[in-house]
C-alpha cells in the first residue's frame, strides 16, 4: 500500500524554496547592478571569479555564457580541428560531444563504469585504438563527473600521460565535489562547469565557467570569451567569440555561492537517507570514501523492466522523477555515425534502460525524503 501524501508538494528541484531562503539578498544584488549600470563585464564578474577561485583552489577562473561554451572555449584553446579525435563518454548530456563535432573534430564514444556511471578505463583504452584504426590523431579526453561524482582522474591522467593527451573535466553536474579534499576545478588542468538553473550552483538563466590550474590558459580563455581581445578592447589577437557572463547573473551567483557550502552538506544528508532506505531495493549510488559527491542528482538503477511502473506509481502520489539519459549518445541520430570504442557500449546501453533520478535539492525535508523512499519501496 502506498502511503497517502501528507507532506508538502515535492519538486524535483525547488528553486522557489531556495529563493525564499535567500531572502532579500538577490533583489538587493540585482538592484545594485541596475544602479551602477555596468551590465557587461562589470565588477561583479571579476568578484565572482575571485570567489570561485577561493572556493575551489583553482589558479584562475574565467566565467562565460554557459557550460557548453565553457567546453567550446577550451577546445578552441587546445586548437582542436579536423582529423583530431577527442574521447568522450557516451552516457552524458549532448554538449560533451556536441562541442567536439562543432569544432570539426571527431568524438569517439567510450563506455561507462557500471558502478560510477563515469568513463570506463578499459573502454577508453579501446577507444584510443579505434582512433588509430580510423587514422585520427588522438588529442584529448573530456571526462564527465556524471550526477556530481568526480570521474576517476588518477587513472585518466595515467592514460593521458602515456598517449600525450590533454584532459578537460566536464564538471557541469559536479561543482562542490572533490577527491581527497582536492575540489572540482583542480582535478584536471582545465575544468568546465555550468550555472544552468538545475545545476548544483545555478544562476537565473544561462551561465558557465572555466577553472584552470594554469595561468597562461586563464589569460587565453579570458581573451577568447571576449572576441579574442588583447590588452586594448579593439586589438584582436585571437579568433574568439562572444561568451561573457552577464553582470546580473554574476551578482546572483555571488549571493548563491555564500550559501552553497551549507546546501552541499544538506544534499549529502539527503543522499544518505535515500541510500539507507533504498539499499537492497534498487542499486544505490556508491563511491569510494575519498571522493566527495556533489549530489547534483540522486540516481538509482531500477531492477530490469520496473522503471516505467515506478515512474507512474511515484507520479500518482505526487513524486516527480526524471530519466538522465534514455539514450546514450552513440545511439542518437545526430551522433551514431561517429566512431566508438567497440561495436556495443554495453554498460551505457543497459544503464540507460534502468536509471532513474529521484528529487534532489537542499530544501527537501527529511519527511519528504522518507516519503519518497517509502513509496519507491512500495512500488517495487
Ligand atoms: C548541463 C551540462 C552541460 C551544458 O551546460 P549548459 O550550461 O546547459 O550549456 C554540459 N555537460 C554536462 C554533463 C551537463 O550536464
Topology:
Blueprint: H1 15-22, H2 25-36, H3 43-56, E1 60-64, H4 67-77, E2 84-89, H5 95-102, E3 106-110, H6 121-133, E4 137-144, H7 153-163, E5 166-170, E6 178-179, E7 182-183, E8 190-194, E9 208-212, H8 215-224, H9 247-278, E10 291-292, E11 298-301, H10 307-316, H11 346-354, E12 355-358, H12 366-379
Parallel strand pairs: 2-3, 2-4, 4-5, 5-8
Antiparallel strand pairs: 1-9, 6-7, 6-10, 8-9, 11-12
This protein binds pyridoxal-5'-phosphate.
Give an overview of the whole structure.
The longest helix has 32 residues, at 247-278. It is built from twelve helices and twelve strands. With 380 residues, it is α/β, with parallel strands linked by helices. Helix 2 (25-36) runs antiparallel to helix 9 (247-278). It is globular and about 65 Å long. The strands form three sheets. Strands 1-9-8-5-4-2-3 form a seven-stranded mixed beta sheet, sandwiched between helices. A hairpin with a 2-residue loop joins strand 6 and strand 7 (182-183). It has helices at 15-22, 25-36, 43-56, 67-77, 95-102, 121-133, 153-163, 215-224, 247-278, 307-316, 346-354, 366-379; strands spanning 60-64, 84-89, 106-110, 137-144, 166-170, 178-179, 182-183, 190-194, 208-212, 291-292, 298-301, 355-358. The site of pyridoxal-5'-phosphate has 15 residues, from helix 4 and helix 5. Pyridoxal-5'-phosphate is lined by residues 66-68, 92-93, 95-96, 144, 170, 172-173, 194, 196, 206, 208.
Identify the overall geometry: globular
How much of the sequence lies in strands comes to: 5-15%
Number of helices: 12
Averaged pLDDT, please? 97
What separation lies between the terminal Cα atoms?
Answer: 11 Å
User: Order of strands across the widest beta sheet?
Assistant: 1-9-8-5-4-2-3
User: Bound compounds, please?
Assistant: pyridoxal-5'-phosphate
Radius of gyration computed on alpha carbons: 21 Å
- Structural category: alpha/beta
